[in-house]
């Protein structure tokens, strides 16, 4: 099958900026080579365009205004302005990436555009990722696949997580044959559990970085807890943790998914900055440990990606809680920072080929289903 060059774009719930990644794939395998130490070499070049504080402020207002959304095309409050901003910033990110790597639009077959999630309510068959795919396609002069969650939601699935099929492709390319857990810690944390026979189970485990980031911004003005240093100086509030982990979500059988705002950092409001950070970090780690209750085979290895892979205190807690080897995506030749952007490039090619993006064991959809909405520049 012909390999295609695809760019994937990701702007996560942490609201930090736009990740850009180029990979070559046929939608089933990824073009990958091994380095001398046996690890995967990088799948392709990557780039990043950060949001400025004014951008993040608008996106935070959009998250608040999105509480009034009742239909996927609703744009109350500042959502229309935020959508225009998201589209523009993604276009700028791709344009800078192409220029920086000596590439032209004609060199790229497709762009996978996730957009910015502002609300995710699968129980109401509603998920909204702002970002205008056709406008992005016209500006870039490249085909764009967007709205990658829509078909799954409309078919009764959770619409998330979307990346497990890419995780499986990476695991196969790496030669992993034992039971494996892949944990992506973005604003929300999600896990892909891959059994030795290739069966997948995937779901959101609980909060990721979002609560910790919100806490640090409110208490210190910092965007995050660098390396988990603040949490490491504090002590978790055990009664609060027990109450949080008693939430019905954690007892539900997967597939299941969360909205960024299901849990609030304000619950830790009476704690010191250090103890609050410790409590919220422990909440993320212990929610992951609860994922083992649903595993077909407990993973013998966990690979951690996303912003959480840079949080040393979180990794330390995971190592203490999970009876398995804990490593980061970078340590096995994957990309902790750009894994999701790579995944959306991969999913865009699968969408072009009509291959399934989601499965009953990953989103709860009734049958494996493709997805994505294709826009071509000439259509505008």
Automatic annotation (TrEMBL):
<keyword id="KW-0808">Transferase</keyword>
<dbReference type="GO" id="GO:0016301">
    <property type="term" value="F:kinase activity"/>
</dbReference>
<keyword id="KW-0418">Kinase</keyword>
<keyword id="KW-0119">Carbohydrate metabolism</keyword>
<keyword id="KW-0067">ATP-binding</keyword>
<dbReference type="Pfam" id="PF03702">
    <property type="entry name" value="AnmK"/>
</dbReference>
<dbReference type="InterPro" id="IPR005338">
    <property type="entry name" value="Anhydro_N_Ac-Mur_kinase"/>
</dbReference>
<protein>
    <recommendedName>
        <fullName>Anhydro-N-acetylmuramic acid kinase</fullName>
        <ecNumber>2.7.1.170</ecNumber>
    </recommendedName>
</protein>
<comment type="pathway">
    <text>Cell wall biogenesis; peptidoglycan recycling.</text>
</comment>
<feature type="binding site">
    <location>
        <begin position="12"/>
        <end position="19"/>
    </location>
    <ligand>
        <name>ATP</name>
    </ligand>
</feature>
<dbReference type="InterPro" id="IPR043129">
    <property type="entry name" value="ATPase_NBD"/>
</dbReference>
<comment type="function">
    <text>Catalyzes the specific phosphorylation of 1,6-anhydro-N-acetylmuramic acid (anhMurNAc) with the simultaneous cleavage of the 1,6-anhydro ring, generating MurNAc-6-P. Is required for the utilization of anhMurNAc either imported from the medium or derived from its own cell wall murein, and thus plays a role in cell wall recycling.</text>
</comment>
<comment type="pathway">
    <text>Amino-sugar metabolism; 1,6-anhydro-N-acetylmuramate degradation.</text>
</comment>
<comment type="similarity">
    <text>Belongs to the anhydro-N-acetylmuramic acid kinase family.</text>
</comment>
<keyword id="KW-0547">Nucleotide-binding</keyword>
């Amino acid at each position: 099958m012909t390999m295609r060059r695809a760019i994937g774009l990701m702007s996560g719930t942490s609201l930090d900026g736009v990740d850009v990644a180029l990979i070559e794939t046929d939608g089933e395998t990824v073009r990958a080579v091994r380095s001398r130490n046996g690890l995967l070499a990088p799948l392709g070049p990557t780039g990043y365009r950060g949001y400025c504080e004014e951008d993040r402020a608008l996106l935070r207002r959009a998250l608040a205004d999105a509480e009034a959304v009742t239909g996927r095309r609703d744009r109350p409050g500042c959502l229309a302005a935020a959508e225009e901003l998201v589209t523009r910033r993604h276009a700028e990110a791709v344009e800078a990436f192409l220029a920086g790597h000596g590439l032209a639009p004609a060199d790229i077959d497709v762009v996978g555009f996730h957009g910015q999630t502002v609300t995710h309510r699968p129980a109401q068959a509603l998920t909204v990722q702002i970002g205008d795919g056709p406008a992005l396609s016209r500006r870039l002069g490249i085909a764009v696949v967007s709205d990658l969650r829509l078909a799954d939601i409309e078919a009764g699935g959770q619409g998330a997580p979307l990346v497990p099929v890419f995780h499986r492709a990476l695991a196969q390319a790496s030669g992993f044959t034992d039971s494996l857990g892949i944990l992506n810690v973005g604003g929300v944390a999600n896990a892909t559990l891959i059994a030795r026979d290739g069966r997948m189970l995937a779901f959101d485990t609980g909060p990721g970085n979002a609560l910790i980031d919100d806490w640090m911004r409110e208490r210190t003005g910092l965007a995050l807890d660098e390396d988990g240093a603040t949490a490491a100086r504090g002590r978790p509030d055990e009664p609060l943790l027990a109450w949080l982990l008693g939430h019905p979500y954690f007892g539900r059988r997967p597939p299941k998914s969360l909205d960024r705002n299901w849990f609030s950092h304000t619950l830790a409001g009476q704690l010191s900055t250090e103890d609050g950070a410790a409590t919220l970090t422990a909440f993320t780690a212990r929610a992951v440990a609860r994922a083992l209750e649903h595993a077909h085979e407990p993973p013998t290895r966990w690979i951690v990606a996303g912003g959480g892979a840079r949080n040393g205190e979180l990794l330390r807690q995971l190592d203490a809680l999970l009876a398995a080897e804990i490593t980061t995506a970078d340590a096995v030749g994957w990309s902790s920072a750009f894994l999701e952007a790579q995944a959306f490039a991969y999913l865009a090619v699968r969408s072009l080929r009509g291959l399934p993006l989601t499965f009953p064991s990953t989103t709860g959809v009734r049958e494996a289903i493709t997805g994505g909405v294709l826009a071509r520049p000439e259509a505008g």
